[in-house]
Amino acid sequence: MPNPHNVAVVAEQFHGSLQQITSELIGAARFLSEKLGTGVSCFLLGHEITQLAERLVHQGADEVIVIDAPQLKEYATLTYRRAVIGILEHLGTPPQIVLMGSTTIGRDLAPRIAAYLETGLTADCTEFDIGDYEHKGKADPSKTGNFKNILYAIRPSFGESLKARILGPWKNPQMATARIGVVQALPLDTSRKGKIYNISVNFKQEDLRIKVLKTVRDVSVSVNLTEAKVIVSGGYGLGEPEGFEVVRDLASVFKNSVVGASRRAVDSNWIGYAHQVGQTGKTVRPDIYIALGISGAIQHRVGMANSKLIIAVNKDADAPILKFAHYGIVGDLYQVAPLLKKALIKMAKQKY
Amino acid sequence: MPDTSSKAGVNPDGTIDRARAKRMLNPFDRYALQKALEIKRDSGAEVTCVAMGPPPAVEVLIEAFEHGADYGILLTDKRLAASDTLATAYALHKVVHYLGDFDVILTGLQTTDGDTAQVGPQIAERLNIPQITYCEHLSISDRILNGQRIVEGGNQEIEVHLPVLITVANSATPLDYKRFADVAAVKEFLRHPEERDKRIRTVSLDTIGANPNRTGLLGSPTVVGKTWKIGDVGGSCIVFKGESIEREVDELMERLRTDGRGVEELINA
Ligand SMILES: Cc1cc2nc3c(=O)[nH]c(=O)nc-3n(C[C@H](O)[C@H](O)[C@H](O)COP(=O)(O)OP(=O)(O)OC[C@H]3O[C@@H](n4cnc5c(N)ncnc54)[C@H](O)[C@@H]3O)c2cc1C
């Protein structure tokens, strides 16, 4: 029997390949489970994916509970919902903690599971910890209590300017989703051994109400966005694909630099997905991030807000990015970028 | 989620003070409203907007009317204060039950104060209906909805039978819902109490048959513990804006030279 007391992670795979977020979630779960003195269980859902279970063990899982079914070939809310509920029912006792990715899958699925279980869910966490909490409960005396070893789900709020610790000690599982690229994965350990359980679930007619007609996903090898010291990114403000020449040109001024992009530029087919920065792209924290013609939507911001220095060029003085960048230039990027390039080269020359 | 900091907006006699009231429709919800109005245009559907908040939140509904919504319902009750997402979804699904029949529920992605796209799916769960989150495009025919949702690195095409809940992506379409607007007509019906009451209903937890123990603090399984400020993120941008681009770039360079961040170290000499 699988151990219901482990910290649980819902693994994410796409067409048979495990997603980066999964190893990060396992890393976070290991950290939490060591504090709690338990282990890590992974839920693995999909079709013809059982072979991935061993890799989850190498990533740090102690147990993997697999549901391998044709209905789970493509992610769809209701079939995956049924599968997760099926595993939880199989466990009998709900795990204390269930972690998922703050991805378009995790954010679609986790709230439904939480609502089904009537339990708390904290989205979009950047850190986790275990600790105690005393609830004084002046307004809700029935919830008063002194709680030990509960999940601290830590997330940014109010436009990324605050961090908040969210607690849900009253009911298990305490659920949370984690942002991509913020928690550390563990080094792969191919000598690790774990237990693998295959279970099955009965899908009901109502679980099949969502038909996925097609999934288009660019899984091309990524450019080295996460390791570059400098990222120069272009957005929809470039106006045309050729605009990326200007972006590349400015990037060429820097050592160890790469070109990034907003989703809108990627969606317009101006540049490959591998360059995308943001919630559904890469989370980056270079020494310098230069944004050309990017408005600064929240989904872009979460991917680059931790850059050490952010410089934005935008012709609209009210663009949100000009509120959270460090420096902003209001103007046409086609005029600003070449001048900026020249000035940067001059600055470096004067130095030497 | 309305801006609850605004107490202005309603006169002592209950009428709306247009001059003092603050526009409060959450930017994310505007995309949902726009999609709803597009469905109305294409199919003749009726659009009902639901708001939850203190009485001044009626302003959100008026704004929605001005853009073409047909009915508004305001759920207002002190016992809703401090509801987390689960408790909010509970209350809102009760409103949906109270309203009766529906085909499509549209919600915005999230609120501006850091809420997290959870309420939509949680309403769908309680109503036991399918959902399409992060939806950018949709079309409906013969009670089948085809939607395109965002996924990492691309998108997904989905087909569902109505009823369904959709969370509309803020990247969906350029926001131009104002094109549906009819401000004069709204002014007119607001002047007639019977007409106004037909269009706007204000309900409490009791009206909709919601259990107050499942809303507000009591119904919220989570609580915000400690909060703290993070570094220099936000609000500190130095913006260079002047008569010439050359000047702006010069000023920026001056900063970079003197701010000790070492930008010059990263330039190819
Ligand atoms: C679920 C979901 C996930 C998402 N994931 C991501 C993600 O990972 N990454 C991401 O980036 N977005 C993501 N988005 C999309 C996001 O909401 C925005 O739509 C997107 O970031 C906008 O891209 P943009 O800033 O390039 O375009 P726009 O918002 O159109 O901004 C263009 C900007 O360019 C400026 N501009 C125009 N011309 C010029 C000029 N000549 N010179 C200077 N400035 C000019 C304009 O003033 C404007 O500010 C996601 C959305 C959803 C719903």
What do you see in this structure?
The complex is a heterodimer of chains A (352) and B (269). Chain A has 352 residues and is of the alpha/beta class. Chain A has two domains: 7-208, HUPs (Rossmann fold, 3-Layer(aba) Sandwich); 221-351, TPP-binding domain (Rossmann fold, 3-Layer(aba) Sandwich), CATH 3.40.50. Chain A is built from nine helices and 18 strands. In chain A, the strands form four sheets. In chain A, strands 7-11-6-1-4-5-12 form a seven-stranded parallel sheet, sandwiched between helices. The model of chain A has no long low-confidence stretch (mean pLDDT 94). Chain B folds into two domains: 27-214, HUPs (Rossmann fold), CATH 3.40.50; 236-269, no CATH class. Chain B contains seven helices and ten strands. Chain B has a five-stranded mixed sheet, sandwiched between helices. Chain B has a three-stranded parallel sheet with strand order 1-2-8. In chain B, a hairpin with a 2-residue loop joins strand 5 and strand 6. Chain B is globular. Mean pLDDT of chain B is 85; it is low at 1-21. Classes of the chains: A alpha/beta (352), B alpha/beta (269). Flavin-adenine dinucleotide sits between chains A (104, 235-237, 262-265, 276-281, 293-295, 297, 299-300, 303, 313-316, 319, 332-334) and B (109, 134, 150, 169-171).
Radius of gyration of chain A: 23 Å
Unreliable parts of chain A: none
Order of helices and strands of chain B: HEHEHEHEEEEHHEEEH
What binds here, in terms of ligands, is: flavin-adenine dinucleotide
CATH architecture annotation name of the largest domain in chain A: 3-Layer(aba) Sandwich
Helical percentage of chain A = 25-40%
- Please tally the β strands of chain B and state the result: 10
Span between N and C termini of chain A?
A: 67 Å
Tell me the layout of helices and strands.
The complex is a heterodimer of chains A (352) and B (269).
Chain A (H helix, E strand, L loop, with lengths): L6 E4 L2 E2 L2 E2 L1 H17 L3 E7 L5 H8 L3 E6 L8 H15 L5 E5 L4 H12 L3 E5 L1 E9 L9 E13 L4 E6 L6 E5 L16 E4 L11 E8 L12 E5 L8 H9 L5 E5 L1 H5 L20 E5 L5 H7 L4 E6 L6 H4 L2 E4 L2 H19 L1
Parallel strand pairs in A: 1-4, 1-6, 4-5, 5-12, 6-11, 7-11, 14-15, 14-16, 16-17, 17-18
Antiparallel strand pairs in A: 2-3, 8-9, 9-10
Helix pairs in contact in A: 3-4, 5-9
Chain B lengths: L26 H17 L4 E5 L5 H9 L4 E5 L9 H15 L4 E4 L11 H9 L3 E11 L2 E8 L2 E8 L2 E5 L14 H9 L1 H7 E4 L19 E7 L8 E3 L4 H14 L11
Parallel strand pairs in B: 1-2, 2-8, 3-7, 4-7
Antiparallel strand pairs in B: 4-5, 5-6
Helix pairs in contact in B: 3-4
The complex binds flavin-adenine dinucleotide.
